[in-house]
Amino acid sequence: MNLTIIVRLIRLSFPIIIISILFKIMHWPYTQLLMTIGLGIIVLLYPVRFYLKKEKRIIDYVKLLVAIFLPLNIYLNLFHLPSHYILPIISSTSFLLYLLLELYNNYINKESSKELTVFPFGVLSVIIAILLLGVFYRISHFENATPILITGFVLLFLYFIVDTFKLNK
């Protein structure tokens, strides 16, 4: 299987997870199915991507740990399934190590020159602001919370879809 196809499938799992989070917040049906599909794609395909990648650095090994243990931990906690106490320790430690390595590579080592998105940063900031406003309205039980929240999630979903299939890869 081509590495580009695997990366696109993994990136498509993020909109599925975003929609499943919306379903969970709104108490709509099929939440567990959507979350299983989204997180399952990551857990199953990221090790294949890792295997096919030619050059592997330390950060790649850490990302492999994050891609396996963090979705498992999220899934088990989100649906109140039994899990071992070591799973959250491994997932959070590997995630923190990944963040530190990524910060080091991007800001101290200046190693990364890749662009993260096809959109300017302001577009993502507006989407996140709409999403956070909807979340705060929902928590506070204000009117119009649901349309704002759904708008934010749909915009974030579309953002990931467009970013996944951008032409300049």
Describe the structure.
It holds the Pfam family GldL_N. The chain crosses the membrane at residues 9-27, 33-52, 61-79, 85-104, 116-139, 145-162. Residues 16-46 form the Gliding motility protein GldL-like N-terminal domain. This protein has 169 residues and is mainly α. It folds into two domains: 1-112; 115-169. Helices cover 77% and strands 0% of the residues. It is built from six helices and no strands. The protein has helices spanning 3-26, 31-52, 58-78, 86-108, 121-140, 145-164. The chain is globular. 20% of the residues are buried.
Question: Keywords for this structure?
Answer:
mainly alpha, 2 domains
SSE arrangement:
Elements: H1 3-26, H2 31-52, H3 58-78, H4 86-108, H5 121-140, H6 145-164
Domain Gliding motility protein GldL-like N-terminal: 16-46
Organism: Flavobacterium jumunjinense
Transmembrane segments: 9-27, 33-52, 61-79, 85-104, 116-139, 145-162
Going by helix content, strand content and strand pairing, the class is mainly alpha
One letter per element, helices H and strands E, the order comes to: HHHHHH
- The parts where pLDDT drops under 50 for at least 5 residues are none
Largest sheet: none
Shape: globular
Tell me the helix content: over 70%
Count of spatially separate domains: 2
Mean pLDDT: 85
How many beta-strand segments? 0
Distance between the termini: 18 Å
How many distinct helices? 6
Alpha-carbon Rg, integer:
17 Å
Strand content: under 5%
